[in-house]
Design goal:
The chain is mainly α. The protein is built from six helices and three strands. 61% of the residues lie in helices and 11% in strands.
């Protein structure tokens, strides 16, 4: 097990990842905030989804998800159609226009990463990918807890 100081440094590094995410978000087109990009990526990965499923995958409230869905739908990036299993629900899917936009967005993101990490070896990038995957796996599916912080139990000492 790592020493406490290593975990403290890891906590600082994870917090600093927010700055990296904000810098990456600055490279997004003005009409595509990060949440809109997330909607497109999830629909591209999972295919048709209900808004409730999308909210679960994004680990955000349904009302917030609905606003993000409306934003991407207004731009023609997704299509909504009735769910054949439940006429009250709508299924969301990425549109052809959305797929083209996401392809361009992905290319821009890859170019940005390549530019920022130009002095990294292929092995360094692969190692970072592996370690980030391990980190995520160690935390499990955070959505299963509804995005709530993990509770720790302490035992009282007498």
């Amino acid at each position: 097990m790592a020493e406490r100081s290593q975990y403290e440094e890891l906590a600082r590094q994870i917090s600093a990842i927010g700055a990296v995410k904000r810098e990456m978000a600055r490279g997004l087109p003005p009409e595509c905030p990060p949440a809109s990009a997330a909607v497109l990526m999830l629909l591209n990965k999972h295919g048709e989804l209900r808004t409730s499923q999308l909210a679960e995958l994004m680990a955000i409230d349904m009302s917030v998800t609905s606003r993000h869905v409306a934003h991407v739908a207004d731009r023609g990036w997704i299509e909504r159609h009735p769910d054949p299993q439940d006429g009250r629900s709508r299924l969301l899917r990425i549109s052809d226009r959305g797929e083209r936009f996401l392809t361009d967005l992905s290319a821009h993101t890859i170019e940005s990463l390549a530019a920022h990490l130009h002095d990294w070896s292929d092995e360094d990038v692969a190692q970072l990918n592996d370690l980030l995957n391990r980190l995520r796996a160690s935390f499990g599916d955070c959505r299963a807890r509804g995005g709530q912080p993990h509770e720790t139990k302490t035992t009282a000492t007498h």
